[in-house]
Amino acid sequence: MPADPTHSHMKHVTKYLLIPITCVLFGSCAEDDRPASPPVFFDYKVWAEEGSPVTCTFQYRRRNVEGRTVSLHPSASVQFDGEELKAGHAGITGSYYEKVIPAEQFSGNHTVIFTDSAGRKFRERFTFRPFTLEEPLPSQLPLQPFSIRLKDISPGARVRLVMINTDADVNDVNTFLKPVDGVIHVSEQLVRQVGAGNIIVQITAEEERPLKSVTTAGGRLLTSYGIQREIVLGEGP
């Protein structure tokens, strides 16, 4: 997200930067205040944008991913990398456990341990490595197809490409592209859709995988990491 919120294109940028967050955070709009009893669905989410802290949330739902969030029994606990987390509550998301960590301290391996009221431990390990660009995007590109090389992109990630023309009232590009050997190809159709001008380019890698140590209800880990650049397409406005 641009540092200066007074930029005229702020509204346009924000609506897309929030996509990964709203998609992975607001999975349920109601909470069940009864203490959880197995089985519960483990709903884990990790997201960040380049230059911003990493946010991790851990929620527990009745039966499945669409279930209501539950309040854990007082004897249950959630630990992240050895630190016990305190429960939080929000009207939209319900009960949750959250940890916010500076991005420079987060790359690598992590462990979440959920201990239920019977003392059973469910240990989940995952690795988080943010991708970057293999080489910088040129400040200006001709109005024709181009490619973007991504470094350290997860093989299982899907890549969302958003392009916003801040100089013209045109349809924004908002689509998923499949990386091929770490490269995403921006087609002529997408280039012509966004048109010539100053372009905000947002690239977000999103990945969902099932958890391994869960109750019979199952669980998932959603990760999202995004970067943003600005270029000029064509000769500019």
Fold and architecture overview:
The chain is mainly beta. 9% of the residues lie in helices and 49% in strands. The chain has 3 helices and 18 strands. The protein has helices at residues 10-17, 19-25, 188-194; strands spanning 31-35, 40-49, 54-62, 69-71, 77-80, 83-84, 87-90, 94-101, 108-115, 121-128, 132-133, 140-141, 146-151, 158-165, 173-177, 183-186, 197-210, 219-233. The strands form 4 sheets. Strands 2, 3, 7, 8, 12, 14, 15, 17 and 18 form a 9-stranded mixed sheet that branches. It has a 4-stranded antiparallel sheet with strand order 6-5-9-10, with no helix packed on it. The protein has a 3-stranded antiparallel sheet with strand order 11-13-16. A hairpin with a 5-residue loop joins strand 9 (108-115) and strand 10. The model is unreliable at 1-15 and 17-36 (pLDDT under 50).
